[in-house]
Amino acid sequence: MQGDIVSSVLLPVALAFIMFSLGLGLTPPDFARIARQPRALLVGMLCHFVLLPLACFAMIKVSGITGAFAVGFMILAACPTGSTSNLLTYIARGDVALALSFTAVASVLTIFTLPMIVSFSLDYFAGTAQRVPAPIGTMTGQIFLMVGLPVALGMVVRNRKPALALRIEPKATKIATVLFILIVIAAAAKNWALLRDNFGTLAPFAIALNVTMLLCGFLVARLARLSRRQSITLGIETAVQNATLALVIASTVLKQDAMAIPGALYGVLMYAGGLVFAYSMRRFATDETGAPVAAGAATR
Asked: Does this model's pTM top 0.85?
């Protein structure tokens, strides 16, 4: 019964709060920036919504990972970028405005793209004995309630009560971080035997996927002739996922705890890769004139 309460109530509520805290940091101008830099956004969408799922699928096939774990990684690849990508972008001296805009857009688009990718993954990777029906309509509605609506409410608070939003946003972000840590610990503890027995296979895969997408996002952006700061940002946005959403989809929507293991593992390991990437790139970040960007210049 306690496990059911955690999966059906606590996880969705925690995710909703995390997304609400993200919304507190977003304003309409974050979306308006898209009109001023559509190429960067389009490249980011290509990397995050097309190349990431395709790369994950190809790596799964090559590695031989099957069943629930394969579906779990595909669920992770279908999730939007994590809110902490904005912090990593700041550390890397990337384009924080682009990061905010992309995070906002990705959170909305995921409502439509995630159910389709999850449905395909279940059909392709789940064996007969473990096949789980993908309730696309129900999943879309739940994703909207847990992702889209809380972000919108956070933005409403930021728009109507900016002073209040600015005052509570730091505290909300800290609470969201603690909730994420607790969610990952709970998922790992609940499935400790599976995690222990498969760590040697899943951890290297998670690290490889993270590094691959950090480099893929950066290099594709450079090939598209985006600035170095924008390229750094899109590298981070392509690789940093909303692991909490992956856990909720696996445990709450599909009710398959084994599928939550990849999200829990990646949710921890992606910060290691992200921080190494951020600190490696920050020394090379430049502004439009080619001068080094000071740390304070990355703030909004």
From this structure: no
